[in-house]
Design goal:
The chain is α/β, with parallel strands linked by helices. The protein has 17 helices and eleven strands. The protein binds 2-acetamido-2-deoxy-beta-D-glucopyranose. It comes from Dacryopinax primogenitus (strain DJM 731).
């Protein structure tokens, strides 16, 4: 009975979190950690202007049908790999002993897997005033990229295009009438989204925000771009956006955006305002990107992967090395100027890889490619944690849903993937991959700081995404893609969560 187990888990969650810290602390034998929640971040409450003269949207990406539907529409390349699931399901929570050890002394820092747990646990709430129209939706999430597909129904194929379009629009408004309310200490709210403050924070760093990962990270970048089209509180001119996008597409059979920049609009008043606020920052910085999205499905290039895999004896069928995996050389965009200008803040790297790791792609069972995955993480970490002026945020892999078309509303608690149905694409195994990052980051940065001094955080998005089975892209047959997200609320909330922890 998975829902019951899940509910029990949800109830046990706070206890387990505490237990994890205790176990961790004992393991480290340093007794320096405690149970205190992270100190409250500053919540700047600047009211958003709800204007109807919205900034003009510049489309940077079209949803690609072939790609969006790939996890359900693609033929399995190697259907014979479905293996026994015995060794592959997520580890069960540790049994809680009835006599807990006394709490360790006063806390200063927490390991990455613990620090932002309250942000990742919570529940979707229906908005008091849900958007009743597309313009209303645009005042919440910006005006870019909110496309519509209808939900599944038996007679879907019989409907006219305009009927489907209307159903898609209705569904979009339904999906966007929810808001993630995390269980923050003291009932605190998530930091309010503020375009001006976001841009100011990032321009005051060498490289701004770097979003690196696969198409799901691309969805996050797409919504973030839309959120940057929202009016700037207190700005003298909100008739056009303060930022400009530019995108580069891959060539070949599978065309995707592999690099997108969001840069300050040189003629927008915000540009001059920030120039005046940061007179000591070189002019060139203002022309460089505020946000970059770089697509790299596996994080290491094929040439780099082979020796890394060889070290751990991981061999695989070369299926992943097909046209799907975009490999933008993202590490050349990490900060590399060792000196800081006065008050310079760290650049932020938001990283993920997960959805491209599956038995279908590698031609091996989950246990085998997990070793390859772990080797990739171990290979990357010394470089990332040793990069000066870098704040690393590892974003966990979101939870897809088995037969998502059966759902019309969020669920609580989140629905786990059914491993019997979703073996080939490795969906039920995503939590194990997240666990690899949690272990490696907790070990390498037990106090949430890398060797070069930058912050190291984990943003777990599993529960918040698992509660949204109704919010997937689907397909024109109504039953398609249950991995990618439809509408801005899920990937856009990841962007808000990152803003919260900055
Ligand atoms: C993004 O900005 C970087 C740094 O200025 C530049 O090298 C790159 O060509 C830009 N890419 C796109 C797609 O505009």
């Amino acid at each position: 009975m998975p829902p019951l187990i899940n509910r029990r888990r949800a109830l046990l969650f706070p206890l387990l979190a505490v237990l994890a810290v205790i176990l961790y602390v004992r393991h480290q034998a340093t007794a320096q950690y405690s149970f205190a929640v992270p100190s409250r971040l500053s919540f700047a409450h600047v009211p958003l202007e709800h204007e109807t003269n919205l900034p003009v949207s510049v489309p940077v990406s079209e949803p690609s049908d072939s790609e969006e539907a790939r996890h359900t529409a693609e033929q399995l390349l190697f259907p014979g790999v479905a293996q026994s699931l015995s060794s592959t399901s997520a580890p069960e929570p540790t049994v809680i002993s009835s006599s807990l050890p006394p709490p360790p002394p006063k806390p200063t820092t927490l390991p990455p897997s613990v620090k932002y747990r309250p942000l990742s646990s919570g529940r979707w709430h229906q908005l008091a005033s849900p958007p009743g129209s597309l313009p209303a939706l645009h005042t919440l999430w910006g005006s870019h990229g909110h496309y519509c597909l209808p939900a599944f129904r038996e007679d879907l194929q019989l409907l006219s295009d305009s009927e489907r379009e209307e159903l898609g629009r209705e569904r979009l408004l339904r999906c966007t009438s929810w808001e993630w309310v995390p269980s923050l200490p003291g009932g605190a709210k998530m930091r309010e989204w503020n375009v001006r403050n976001f841009i100011a924070r990032l321009v005051n760093s060498e490289r701004g925000m770097l979003l690196v990962g696969d198409s799901l990270t691309g969805q996050m970048a797409d919504v973030l771009y839309s959120m940057l089209l929202l009016p700037i509180p207190g700005s003298e001119d909100n008739s056009y956006p303060a930022i400009l996008p530019s995108a580069h597409y891959t060539t070949g059979t599978h065309v995707v955006i592999d690099h997108m920049n969001v840069t300050l609009h040189p003629f927008h008043p915000l540009y001059a305002e920030l120039r005046a606020q940061f007179p000591h920052i070189l002019e060139e910085r203002f022309q460089e990107p505020i946000v970059q999205y770089m697509r790299h499905d596996l994080l290491l290039s094929y040439a780099e992967l082979e020796p890394v895999f060889e070290q751990v004896g991981f061999t695989h069928a070369p299926f992943e090395y097909g046209p799907f995996a975009s490999q933008f050389p993202w590490r050349v965009r990490l900060p590399n100027n060792p000196s800081r200008w006065d008050g310079e803040q760290d650049s932020v790297l938001v990283l993920n890889t997960g959805a491209h790791w599956s038995p279908a792609r590698w031609g091996v069972p989950q246990a085998a490619y997990t070793e390859g995955y772990r080797a990739v993480v171990r290979h990357l970490l010394p470089e990332l944690l040793g990069t000066p002026k870098l704040h690393l945020v590892y974003r966990g892999t979101a939870s897809p849903h088995t037969n998502c078309y059966e759902h019309t509303a969020p669920v609580f608690p989140g629905l786990p993937v059914d491993p019997a149905h979703e073996y080939d694409w490795g969906w039920a195994h995503f939590p194990v991959l997240d666990q690899v990052w949690a272990e490696q980051l907790d070990e390498a940065a037990p106090e949430g700081k890398g060797s070069a001094g930058g912050r190291v955080d984990i943003l777990d998005v599993r529960e918040m995404s698992a509660q949204r089975p109704e919010d997937h892209v689907l397909g024109f047959d109504g039953k398609g893609d249950c991995l990618h997200w439809y509408g801005p609320t899920v990937p856009g909330t990841w962007a808000k969560m990152v803003w919260h922890i900055l």
